[in-house]
């Protein structure tokens, strides 16, 4: 059974592909505009160069005035530098000269020489020939508008990515909050529904226990354990959505108690072992009722994976000075690598029956309520799986 939540990865992929297409289209269209504007500026500089050439050989003062006012002065955006054939600077236009060097000819020439080197990397100079055989060079570079336009799509994509990220996190937070409300509502309703029949069962248990007909009957003790178990289950559901009370508990003893209860209620062909690599009096901050629930869910999944036959080994160890690790290893079917990231999603199950909520609930209890971690430490198909619980001391 594949959870509906597993489809979110496909949806994310679709959004990423759409975003990439939009980004590629934006960059392509902007590059077309940049190319056209660059050609337009090149034509403008070529016209500027032709105007200079005509001025040099113009027979009429009226024509020189016209060229000066209508052609040369019309270029107020493209930076240009006019040099002789030895690249000695003769004139410049649209070059930003800082005020602190405006009166220093040497510094201005040094600045313009650096600008020429930059211009050479963008465009080849335009040659302006003289009648005497000598030439002048017109160096130029992209205007500020063209330079900005080259970077515009990337800035646009960054802004879009920032807004998309904000929207994604807001949506994810909203969805998690909604899921939490569903979890809490379902848990509270379940606890409420269990309350009435549980009260009746407790009354019947006390009645049967006091009856002489059932005196010294071992079934009465087992019935009492099951009634107590129902109380614990009701308490667990009541704790969902509330801030659980965490106490310093002997984790080894708590784990052994949980396994002892399970062992009498599952297949006898499943062999449990509980070991630790630290002193038995080491404690961890847990809510016993919820922690038992986690152990129960993981172990029941392990039993199903082993088809009721195999070993479940639980080993407790210290992780530094502040954490305890609980490793639960089974000899079941194992989990394919492609499925490891989905085993904790609500609805994921390999069984024909079941809602696929056990591991999802276990992870929520450890990660959210105990501020610990629950993850798949190791798994190999055909050999088994190890789940690791990390708790704070």
What does this protein structure show overall?
With 393 residues, the chain is α+β, with helices and mostly antiparallel strands. The chain has eight helices and eleven strands. The strands form three sheets. It has a five-stranded mixed beta sheet with strand order 6-8-9-11-10. A four-stranded antiparallel beta sheet has the order 2-1-4-3. It has a two-stranded antiparallel sheet with strand order 5-7. Helix 1 (8-57) runs antiparallel to helix 2. It is rod-shaped and about 135 Å long.
How would you state the average pLDDT, rounded? 81
In terms of DSSP E residues, the strand content is 15-25%
Strand tally, please? 11
Number of helices: 8
Report the uncertain regions.
Answer: 1-6, 64-69
Biggest sheet architecture: 5 strands, mixed
Compute the separation of the termini in Å.
37 Å
Question: How much helix is in the residues?
Answer: 40-55%
What is the topology, as strand order, of the major beta sheet?
A: 6-8-9-11-10
Rg (C-alpha, Å): 39 Å
Helix-strand topology string: HHEEHEEHHEHEEHEEHEE
- Shape type: rod-shaped
Helix-and-strand structural type:
alpha+beta
InterPro entries: HATPase_C_sf (IPR036890), HATPase_dom (IPR003594), His_kinase_dom (IPR005467), Sig_transdc_His_kin-like_C (IPR004358)
Organism: Pontibacter toksunensis
GO molecular function: ATP binding
Catalytic activity: ATP + protein L-histidine = ADP + protein N-phospho-L-histidine
């Amino acid at each position: 059974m594949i959870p509906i939540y597993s489809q979110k990865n496909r949806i994310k992929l679709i959004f990423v592909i759409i975003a990439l297409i939009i980004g590629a289209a934006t960059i392509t269209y902007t590059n077309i505009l940049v190319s056209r504007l660059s050609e337009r500026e090149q034509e403008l500089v070529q016209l500027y160069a032709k105007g200079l050439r005509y001025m040099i050989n113009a027979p009429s003062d009226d024509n020189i005035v016209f060229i000066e006012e209508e052609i040369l002065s019309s270029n107020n955006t493209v930076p240009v530098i006019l040099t002789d054939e030895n690249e000695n600077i003769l004139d410049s236009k649209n070059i930003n000269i800082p005020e602190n060097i405006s009166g220093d000819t040497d510094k201005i020439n040094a600045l313009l020489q650096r600008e020429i080197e930059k211009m050479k990397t963008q465009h080849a100079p335009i040659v302006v020939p003289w009648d005497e055989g000598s030439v002048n060079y017109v160096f130029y570079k992209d205007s500020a508008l063209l330079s900005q336009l080259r970077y515009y799509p990337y800035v646009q994509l960054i802004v879009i990515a920032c807004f998309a990220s904000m929207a994604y996190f807001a949506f994810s937070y909203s969805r998690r909050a909604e899921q939490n409300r569903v979890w809490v509502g379902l848990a509270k309703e379940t606890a409420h529904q269990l309350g009435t029949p549980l009260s009746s069962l407790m009354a019947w248990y006390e009645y049967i226990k006091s009856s002489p007909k059932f005196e010294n009957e071992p079934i009465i003790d087992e019935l009492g354990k099951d009634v107590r178990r129902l109380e614990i289950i009701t308490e667990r559901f009541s704790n969902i959505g509330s801030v659980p009370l965490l106490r310093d508990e002997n984790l080894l003893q708590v784990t052994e108690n949980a396994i002892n209860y399970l062992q009498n209620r599952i297949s006898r062909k499943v062999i449990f072992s509980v070991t630790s690599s630290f002193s038995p009096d080491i404690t961890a901050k847990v809510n016993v009722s919820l922690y038992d629930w986690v152990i129960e869910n993981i172990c029941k999944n392990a039993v199903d994976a082993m088809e009721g036959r195999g070993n479940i080994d639980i080993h407790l160890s210290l992780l530094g000075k502040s954490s305890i690790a609980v490793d639960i290893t089974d000899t079941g079917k194992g989990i394919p690598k492609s499925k490891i990231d989905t085993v904790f999603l609500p609805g994921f199950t390999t069984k024909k029956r079941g809602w696929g909520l056990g591991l999802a609930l276990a992870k929520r209890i450890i990660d959210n309520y105990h501020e610990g971690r629950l993850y798949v430490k190791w798994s190999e198909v055909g050999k088994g799986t190890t789940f690791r619980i990390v708790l704070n001391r």
